[in-house]
Amino acid sequence: MVNDELRKKTQETANRLFGKGIKMDPPYLTWKEFDRDLANDLSLFITGNLYSRTVLGLPERQMAACAMLAALRATDELKLHVNAALNVGCDPRKIAEIFFQLATYAGMPAVNEALHVFRDVLKERGEWPIK
Questions:
Q1: Staple 114 to which of 32, 69, 99, 108, CB 3.0 to 4.6 Å?
Q2: Local confidence band at 93 (pLDDT 50, 70, 90 cut-offs)
Q3: Is the omega angle on the peptide bond into residue 129 within 30 degrees of 0, that is, cis?
Q4: 73 in a domain, yes or no?
Q5: The whole model's pTM is what?
């Protein structure tokens, strides 16, 4: 049985991350199509427990997520997390810098894909070009 406090924390964190900006379906909706109970468990763990920890703030977690997703070339998930990073106050210039840093570790194709995703999100949010 999940307590109400964890559900509330999960919803609050999800709203901060994904409540504004671009419009796209979160992966949670796909998970639910296959297994509603497991989708809820994953959401409570990822958003309610992991993302709500205080060792790293949401901006730091989102910068790390963006770097990892870009290195993996997981562009759909990257789009979601770039938007979330902007929602929690990450500096767009720093996000771009993180993507350039990938050159050493993941190669220029990963940099190029990440920058394309990032530009598309910024355009959709009406925040392109970066100021």
A1: 99
A2: very high
A3: yes
A4: yes
A5: 0.94
